[in-house]
Design goal:
The complex is a heterodimer. Chain A contains eleven helices and nine strands. Chain A is of the alpha/beta class. Chain A has an eight-stranded parallel β-sheet with strand order 2-3-4-5-6-7-8-9, sandwiched between helices. The longest helix of chain A has 21 residues. In chain B, 4% of the residues lie in helices and 48% in strands. The termini of chain B are close together. Chain B is mainly β. In chain B, strand 3 and strand 4 form a beta hairpin. The radius of gyration of chain B is 16 Å and the shape is globular. The longest helix of chain B has 6 residues. Classes of the chains: A alpha/beta, B mainly beta. Chains A and B meet through strand 1 of A and strand 8 of B.
């Protein structure tokens, strides 16, 4: 039995999923070139960028350890006709993504310049400041649908807190982004000043997968293939979820909201079951935890949907979503990257109108206070 | 099925494609090494436009480190998630039992034949020295 799609959509006909305005929690803008940053980057750091460039914990400047499926990991149809890399042309992003999919808000996630992994912390902080300003000037101020995040490198914690305070004064940023690949697991105390500030400012903490730190991306070492590395996004954030919960971050910061972005959600039920089981057996080791790990997860953490899991049977996806919690899921497309999810077709399981409303809009509206 | 004359053969370069609205459907016609293939311009997975797909070869590997290419240009790699399809029949090559793209019969006819037949599009500028791509939908 073949699933043949026989009839294309006609004219302005829309499937039911898009009658709902969408909040897309993962849209990737790109720099046209480093020169875009010049107006936001002091001369001293412009020179540094030209003369020394990035200093990372992994080898190979301006590239990644594996070829990643397609150039700039982008959809082949997302290269703007005017030139420049995918995601660098607002007019084309509107035409290809924001308008046709009826995106009410799109949350920008910047990956340029390995922003979180710069070893020179002052240079990293200068780049983060420049990128944070660029997000407003090039994107949010030109299209109010697009919302910026405060990007900080958490290993320079004091610099990160200063940048959070600088940006928060504008009132324009909707979350604070840190990397899942810091020097230490994210639950460690050295990062707590950032979480404390996030709680005070009532800004969610966004953690987008990817990048390279000094550690192998899997617990078993460095993968051989991109397909293997791509799997590791889920392992990495599963480890970070455990670290944040078990080191007591939600216990210590009871109003902190944390969003894991682009890690999918298939791995969550077993990770949570296991944490609960171990908590019952070893709770004397972690007396600072007052409640079961699953309770912290259910109250403090949200997960974006892409890349969505595609089990053979629709009911398995349905069951998975129920285990994770319909109210924990935030729609994301990952535009313009190759594993983009189209909101009209990505959920290959029936959802009620109320559930669609939550996943595509209301959950994000509540977390980010749109 | 009706026959639709869609283009002169020279309008679709080798290795290229062109999209036509045929009977209300977006159909993409590929030109591969002198042959033409017509497919619905929509990946059955999430609807990506196949006109932007890469035309690739079939890649097989009898053992690690040994790779063999065959049917160069006849396999279609979706521009989003990389699902691969056989252009000849729309069959998927990653889950062939379940997924395929709707494909349509394609023929090439000379302008002269078309003038004689019943399906000449009246508004179509027929030049008898050219060949035409005809899609059945």
């Amino acid at each position: 039995m073949s699933d043949v799609i026989d009839r294309p959509l006609q004219g302005d006909e829309k499937p039911t999923a898009t009658r709902l305005r969408i909040i897309d929690c993962d849209v990737h803008p790109s720099l046209h070139s480093f020169d875009d940053l010049n107006e936001f980057l002091p001369k001293r750091w412009q020179r540094h960028l030209k003369e020394y460039g990035s200093h990372l914990r992994t080898p190979y400047l301006f590239t990644t350890p594996y070829p990643r499926s397609s150039p700039l990991i982008a959809r082949r149809d997302a290269w703007p006709p005017t030139g420049g890399p995918p995601g660098s042309d607002l007019a084309f992003m509107r035409k290809q993504h924001l308008d046709p999919l009826d995106v009410e808000f799109g949350i920008l996630q910047v990956l340029d310049l390995f922003i979180f992994s710069q070893q020179n912390l002052e240079f990293g902080a200068a780049i983060q400041r420049a990128i944070n300003d660029w997000q407003l000037a090039f994107w949010s101020h030109r299209d109010p649908r697009l919302k910026a995040s405060i990007l900080v490198g958490q290993d320079g914690t004091d610099l990160a807190v200063a940048e959070i305070d600088r940006c928060a004064r504008s009132g324009e940023y909707i979350q604070i982004n840190v990397s899942p690949r810091a020097n230490e697991p994210l639950g460690r105390r050295r990062y707590w000043p950032i979480y404390e500030r996030a709680q005070e400012l009532d800004l969610p903490l966004g953690i987008h997968v990817g990048g390279y730190g000094g550690h192998a991306p899997t617990g078993g070492g460095w993968p051989s293939y991109y397909v293997e590395e791509h799997q590791s996004n889920a392992h990495t954030i599963a480890a970070q979820l455990a670290s944040l919960v078990i080191e007591g971050v939600p216990e210590r910061f009871p109003r902190l909201k944390i969003v894991f972005i682009e890690g999918g959600f298939g791995w969550i039920p077993s990770a949570v079951w296991r944490m609960d089981q171990h908590f019952e057996r070893f709770r004397s080791e972690v007396p600072h935890l007052k409640r079961k790990p699953s309770e912290y997860v259910r109250e403090h953490f949200w997960f974006t949907t892409q890349p969505i899991d595609e089990p053979d049977e629709a009911r398995h996806l349905r069951a998975l979503m129920e285990w994770v919690g319909i109210d924990r899921l935030l729609f994301s497309s990952d535009y313009p990257h190759w594993d983009f999810d189209d909101p009209r077709f990505a959920f290959k399981t029936p959802l009620s109108e109320a559930e669609r409303q939550k996943i595509f809009n209301a959950n994000a509206r509540a977390v980010y206070k749109f | 099925m009706a026959r639709h004359i869609v283009a002169r053969t020279s309008e679709i370069p080798v290795g290229g494609n062109k999209v036509f609205d045929i009977a209300g459907r977006d159909i993409v016609v590929f030109h591969v090494n002198g042959e033409f293939f017509a497919l619905l311009n929509r990946c059955p997975h999430e609807g990506a436009p196949l006109e932007k797909a890469a035309c690739v070869a079939r890649l097989t590997s009898p053992e690690p480190g040994i790779y063999q290419r065959s049917r160069v240009g006849e396999m279609l790699r979706c521009p989003w998630h990389g699902w691969e399809f056989d252009m000849r029949n729309g069959q998927s090559w990653f889950d062939p039992k379940r997924i395929k793209i709707r494909s349509y019969p394609v023929a090439v006819g000379s302008g002269e034949e078309l003038q004689k037949g019943p399906y000449v599009a009246e508004t179509f500028p027929v030049r008898v020295e050219d060949s035409y791509v005809i899609v059945e939908v």
